[in-house]
Design a protein that fits this description.
There is one protein chain. The chain is α/β, with parallel strands linked by helices and 511 residues long. 37% of the residues lie in helices and 16% in strands. It folds into two domains: 185 residues, Ribosomal Protein S5, domain 2, CATH 3.30.230; 309 residues, P-loop containing nucleotide triphosphate hydrolases (Rossmann fold). Strands 12-15-18-11-19 form a five-stranded parallel beta sheet. A hairpin with a 5-residue loop joins strand 6 and strand 7. The chain starts with a strand and ends with a helix. 45% of the residues are buried.
């Protein structure tokens, strides 16, 4: 048969659109043509496939006119993932393997010149897309990629080490069946394991207010801004925040790992662990929210179901920070380009840290601040009001004197705090089905269950502090979380008072 069809998948966001690799062999001037909106990496497959087939001892039809079409033609394709399906298509079209037996299988893999299979990025995203679409196809993938794909419950995955291992599995009828080999192995789905280790909150001494703010942020899914002088422990606190969050559900772990797989940064030992991303303050808007052509996930998507820690917040480019505003509200980011659009999940918790002024010592009892009021105003003015409005908690992290640090007892351990966080989260989920951070609309008044004296207190505080409607609503959500941590059914004035205090960190440093 001179025409063969092999199934594969492209990558576009977390979707994995189906791609049919069509291979046609014809008489005529010998050539090898690749069509179907293929990127440079895909076009280079011609040389890899030719060498892999010849070095594996298989026949390459040098005397034929070879046309390979990657359909649909208007879908951009990138990476070396189509090497294996192209090679199989040539072998099927030239009669070296049985084309009919390829049905029900999907292939992806980069070929080395010797025929060894190399891993490709996005294997877990591909497997998850198949699972979501209800497809029963069997994925044939290289080592490294196959183990990723097998993490999806119910996935049918085969690991192949070499092109010859795949060829042996699809030999024409009448040939001797291949002997069992290590090179062709069906993998079983792996249940998620509970991650262990990681930095512990017990390492942090003192900083009672900041620790309390971390606990509230973890319980309600709130964003947190820490303001304090250099060396006061802001980064140390932020790096321990992920350890306070409840354990990931399987679907959360799969989504988080699928985004990491798309970026090529997934590691099996991180399976089930909430990610903490800490981009440098020189990161561009595209690095933070994603972009490029084809679109790739940015830091906010790689922090999906985990933590995005932005240290030195005012030093980030203004455009990068303003790009965070929409994902903070919606939990996803849509990257639109002229040729295509891709949507990535971005449900992260923002933990930010900053100095109160350029020198860092405004309001410090340790050292005198040498910044002018204009410099302080300009520095804090780098953060727009709309962005600050979207960060629920603002807390001061003062520098501690040496006598409080040396010889002080260890703080409360992360595991103890996480138990309280899980109980508070469970209350919120039982009441409204999502964390308090997502409370909005008409149902908020009924769900917050504000007592009369608490309502009057909140109105007075909002008027005095000149809050926007968004700030007031966010304070209500924080107060509801504080009530959940206390095990209270209704939100009282003491809960609101604490929530009001937790929105004044940045403003307090200005006076």
């Amino acid at each position: 048969m001179s025409l063969a069809l092999v199934q594969s998948r492209a990558l576009l966001g977390l979707q994995a659109p189906a791609v049919t690799v069509e291979v046609h062999l014809a008489n005529g001037l010998p050539s090898f043509t690749l069509v179907g909106l293929a990127d440079v990496e895909v076009k280079e497959a011609r040389e890899r496939v030719r060498s892999a087939l010849q070095n594996a001892g298989l026949d390459f039809p040098n005397n034929k006119r070879i046309t390979v079409n990657l359909a649909p033609a208007d879908l951009p394709k990138d990476s070396g993932r189509f090497d294996l399906p192209i090679a199989l298509g040539i072998l099927a079209a030239s009669g070296q393997i049985d084309a009919s037996r390829l049905a029900g299988h999907e292939f992806a893999g980069e070929l080395s010149l010797s025929g060894e299979l190399r891993p490709v990025r996005g294997a877990l995203a591909t497997s998850l897309a198949l699972h979501t679409q209800g497809s029963t196809a069997c994925l044939v993938l290289p080592p490294g990629s196959a183990e990723e794909a097998a993490l999806v419950p119910g996935a049918r995955v085969v690991r192949a080490r070499h092109l010859l291992d795949v060829v042996q599995a699809f030999l024409p009828p009448g040939t001797e069946p291949p002997a069992p080999s290590e090179g062709w192995t069906a993998l079983q789905a792996q249940p998620p394991r509970t991650p262990t280790g990681g930095p512990d909150l017990a390492d942090v001494k003192g900083q009672t207010a900041a620790r309390r703010a971390l606990e509230i942020a973890a319980a309600g899914g709130h964003g947190l801004l820490m303001v304090g002088p250099p060396g006061s422990g802001k980064s140390m606190l932020a790096q321990r925040f992920a350890g306070l969050l409840p354990a990931m559900q399987v679907d959360e772990a799969l989504e988080s790992a699928a985004v990491a797989s798309l970026a090529g940064s997934f590691r099996p030992e991180d399976w089930g662990r909430r990610p903490t991303r800490q981009p440098h303050h020189t990161a561009s808007a595209v690095a933070l929210v994603g972009g490029g052509s084809p679109p790739r996930p940015g830091e906010i998507s790689l922090a999906h179901q985990g933590v995005l820690f932005l240290d030195e917040l005012p030093e980030f480019p203004r455009a990068a920070l303003e790009a965070l505003r929409e994902p903070l509200e919606t939990g996803h980011i849509t990257i639109a380009r002229a040729a295509q659009r891709a949507e990535f999940p971005a449900r992260f918790q923002l933990i930010a840290a900053m100095n109160p002024c350029p020198c860092g010592f405004l309001g410090s009892s340790q050292r005198a601040c040498r910044c002018t009021p204009d410099q302080v105003a300009r520095y804090q003015g780098k953060l727009s009001g709309p962005l600050l409005d979207r960060i629920d908690l603002h807390v001061e992290v003062p520098a501690l004197p040496a006598e409080q640090l040396v010889g002080a007892p260890a703080g409360e351990a992360s595991a103890t705090v996480r138990e309280r966080v899980e109980r508070a989260r469970a209350r919120a989920l039982a009441r409204q089905g999502h964390p308090n951070q997502a409370l909005q609309g008409q149902g908020m008044d009924e769900l917050v269950m504000l007592q009369d004296d608490a309502l009057q207190f909140l109105q007075r505080a909002a008027n005095r502090l000149g809050w926007s409607a968004r700030s007031t609503h966010r304070t209500l959500r924080v107060a509801r979380t504080i009530a959940d941590l206390a095990g209270a059914t209704h939100t009282g004035a003491d809960h609101v008072a604490e929530a009001v205090q937790l929105r004044r960190g940045l403003h307090h440093t200005q006076h």
